[in-house]
Amino acid sequence: MREGYTVAVVGAGLVGDRIVAELRRRDFPLKELRVLARTARRATLAGEEFEVGVAEPEAFDGVDIAFFAGTEGEKGAAVQLAGEAISRGAVVIDNGSDFRMDPEVPLVVPEVNAGAAKDHNGLIANGNCSTIQMVVTLAPLAREFGIEKVIVSTYQAVSGSGRGGVEALEDGREGVYPKPIDRNAIPLIGGVGDDGYTSEETKMRLETRKIMGLPDLEVFATAVRIPVHTGHSESVYVELGREATLDEVVEALRSAPGVTFSGDADDFPTPLEAAGDPNTFVGRVRVEGNVAQYWCVSDNLLKGAATNAVQIAEELVGVRV
C-alpha cells in the first residue's frame, strides 16, 4: 500500500458530501482530494471548504481513484467521463446504475463479494442503496442455509431522491414524486416496465443475483417511498435451502460482517437509529421451517452509497478498517 492516493469525487450533492465524510472518517490514505462538478465554485462538503473544479477530462490527470457520486444516463458524468478517467490511469467507482449490469463490470458489496473488486478493467459499480443493505443480510443466510426465494417490501427515505426529495418533503416541492410525499406512502420508485415492476424493483432483482452469484434466485420486490429523511427500511421474507431454527438464523445474522443485530423478536431498529451509522440493522426475526422473515434498516447515503464505495476503494488498496 502506498502512503497516499490522489482521489477525485465527482458530484457535490448529498452522496458526494457523504463520500468526502467517509474518506475522512475511515482515514483513507489520501495524498490529494479533488471535488469536481459541472461548474467551478466554492462548496462545503462534510464541513470542509473545497474549490470545486470542473469535471472535464484533464481534471483526472494524476487521479488514482475517482468516485462518481451517481449522476446517470447519457448526459451523466459517469457515461461522459468514466472512460476519460480510466484512460488517465484512474480506477472509477461509480455509484450510478449505468454500468451495474454490464457483465464486464464488477458489482461489489465487500461483505458479500469483496474478491470481485480485484477483477476490474478500470471500472467498478456500486450497488443500488436498497439492494446493498438487503444482500448484506442475505449473504450470511445463503452461506449457512442456502436461499431459494426472496420477497421484499422496501420503505425508502426521500434522500434517496437527492436534494430534490428532501425539498419535496420539507418544502412541498412539486414534480419530484407523482403524488405528495408528506404524510403519504408512494409505491412507485422509478418508471414502470412492461412487466409491471418499477426500475427500482427490477434493480433489486437483477443486482441481487449478480452480487450474490445466484443468477436464478427468485427475487420479488415492492419499493415504496415514505416521508422519512434518511434510512431505508425493508421487510424481507426468505425461503431457505433447508429448515432452520430461530437460534441458528439469529446467530448467522448476529455474526455477519456489517450487520448490527437489534435483539429479540419484539425489538426492532428504525431509520432514526440507523441514520449516521454505516452498518445494516436487523430485528423482528421470525423463523418457521425453511422460512425466515426479518426487518432491516440502513442509512441509504452511507452503506447504501458512500460507505460501500469507500469500502470498495479500501479493498483496492489493501486498507483494513
Low-pLDDT runs of 5+ residues are none
Order of secondary-structure elements: EHEEEEHEEHEHEHHEEHEHEEH
Biggest pleated sheet: 8 strands, mixed
Number of strands: 14
CATH topology name of the largest domain, in short, is: Dihydrodipicolinate Reductase, domain 2
- Tell me the helix content: 25-40%
- What Rg is obtained from the alpha carbons, in whole angstroms? 19 Å
N-to-C terminal Cα separation, in Å?
14 Å
- Under the CATH scheme, the architecture of the largest domain is 2-Layer Sandwich
Count of individual domains? 2
Average pLDDT works out at 95
CATH level-four homologous superfamily name of the largest domain = Dihydrodipicolinate Reductase, domain 2
In DSSP terms (H or I, runs of 4 or more residues), the helix count works out at: 9
Structural class: alpha/beta
- Sheet-strand content, in percent, reads 25-35%
For the biggest β-sheet, the strand order reads 3-4-2-1-5-6-8-7
What's the CATH class label of the largest domain?
Alpha Beta
Q: What oligomerization state is this entry in?
A: single chain
Shape: globular
General description of the model:
The protein is an alpha/beta fold and 321 residues long. It folds into two domains: 5-126 and 304-317, NAD(P)-binding Rossmann-like Domain (Rossmann fold, 3-Layer(aba) Sandwich); 130-300, 2-Layer Sandwich (Dihydrodipicolinate Reductase, domain 2), CATH 3.30.360. It contains nine helices and 14 strands. It has helices at residues 14-25, 77-87, 110-113, 129-145, 163-171, 199-212, 246-254, 271-274, 302-317, and strands spanning 5-10, 30-37, 41-45, 48-54, 65-68, 91-94, 107-108, 123-126, 147-156, 218-225, 232-240, 259-261, 280-288, 291-298. It has an eight-stranded mixed beta sheet, with helices on both faces. A six-stranded mixed beta sheet has the order 10-9-11-14-13-12. Strand 5 (65-68), helix 2 (77-87) and strand 6 form a beta-alpha-beta unit. The two termini are 14 Å apart. The mean pLDDT is 95.
